[in-house]
Amino acid sequence: MSDELKRRHFLKSSIGAIAGLSAYSFTNMDLLASANINWERKNALDPNALAKDEEFWKDIQKLYKPSKEFINLENGYYSMMSEPVRESQMTHLNHINDNHSYFMRRERKIDKEKIYQQVAELAGCSTEELLLCRNTTEALDTIILGLQLNKGD
């Protein structure tokens, strides 16, 4: 098997597991309901106006539970999840743990398809045009390794 085919096989086989871990976040659409944010009003605002809306950012800030032990000034390395996202991820992780192989054999594929459909709708593309990656490095590596580069490029 060529290196290119090995990379493709790895990406295709690992994306399901990654998407499965995130499924609950995408399928639970009331995830941010606890934030008490008027999303319809915020969505109607011009992005520049929203960026300056201090009340909005105070509401967003309430979704996070920063450490009382230190001040994090390094969000570029690793940034925390909001509490609703963390709680959702833990609920889904508990579901996977409770249902282990049954989930992986029966539910994971369905969750993955739901996630891809919802993200594709959000992005305005088809599911065939979409690839979900774990992080920026993996995404860039996927693109770079897929490019046919020649000497001097």
Task: Note down, in words, how this protein is organized.
There is one protein chain. With 153 residues, this protein is an all-alpha fold. It has 2 domains: 85 residues, no CATH class; 49 residues, no CATH class. Helix content is 63%, strand content 0%. It contains 6 helices and no strands. Helix 1 packs across helix 5.
Concise description?
The protein has helices at 3-27, 39-44, 47-51, 54-61, 83-123, 136-146. It is mainly α and 153 residues long.
Distance N to C terminus: 27 Å
Roughly what fraction of the amino acids lie in strands? under 5%
Number of helices: 6
Poorly predicted parts: 11-29
Number of domains: 2
Question: How are the secondary structure elements laid out?
Answer:
Layout: H1 3-27, H2 39-44, H3 47-51, H4 54-61, H5 83-123, H6 136-146
Main features:
extended, 6 helices, 2 domains, mainly alpha, 0% strand, 63% helix, 153 residues
